[in-house]
Specification:
Oligomer: single chain
Order of helices and strands: HEEEEEEHHH
CATH architecture: Roll
Distance between the termini: 33 Å
Structural class: alpha+beta
Number of helices: 4
Helix content: 25-40%
Strand order of the largest sheet: 1-2-3-4
Radius of gyration: 15 Å
Strand content: 15-25%
CATH superfamily: Ubiquitin Conjugating Enzyme
CATH class: Alpha Beta
CATH topology: Ubiquitin Conjugating Enzyme
Largest sheet: 4 strands, antiparallel
Length: 131
């Protein structure tokens, strides 16, 4: 995970921050995506499942709960169709960095434009002004 984060920062292409609890079982952070030159930022959470690494992680974006059909109750993004088979073929080599890069990033790229155009999410700077 650390090498991936360093690579993203060094190449000025970072798009998330993440940190874990003391046991490394719950990871929380922020991720962001750009659409039409505007930054959209979201909190996310990953709980390491009991069967990890054979069982892929679930990524939760609580503030988007109920705003898209490509999400389960509680804000968990749908990774079953595309990401789960990839994870199954590649564990135990895959880890959290892979889940973010190959699961969360494509999900954001697909969903943020739809949610933004529908007015269901606001750019990060707009949200800060409203608070």
């Amino acid at each position: 995970m650390c090498k991936f984060i360093e690579f993203c920062r060094d190449s000025e292409s970072d798009w998330f921050e993440i940190d874990s609890d003391e046991l490394g079982l719950v990871w929380k952070g922020k991720c962001w995506s750009f659409f039409e030159l505007q930054r959209f930022e979201f909190d996310f959470e990953i709980e390491i499942p009991r069967g990890y690494p054979a069982t892929p992680v679930e990524i939760c974006l609580p503030q988007l709960d109920g705003k898209t059909p490509k999400m389960y109750r509680g804000g968990k993004i749908c990774l079953d169709v595309h990401f789960k088979p990839l994870w199954t073929r590649n564990f135990p080599r895959f880890g959290l960095a892979h889940a973010l890069a190959l699961g969360l990033a494509p999900w954001l790229a697909a969903e943020v434009p739809i949610l933004a155009e529908a007015g269901l999410i606001l750019p990060h700077s707009s949200e800060a002004k409203e608070s």
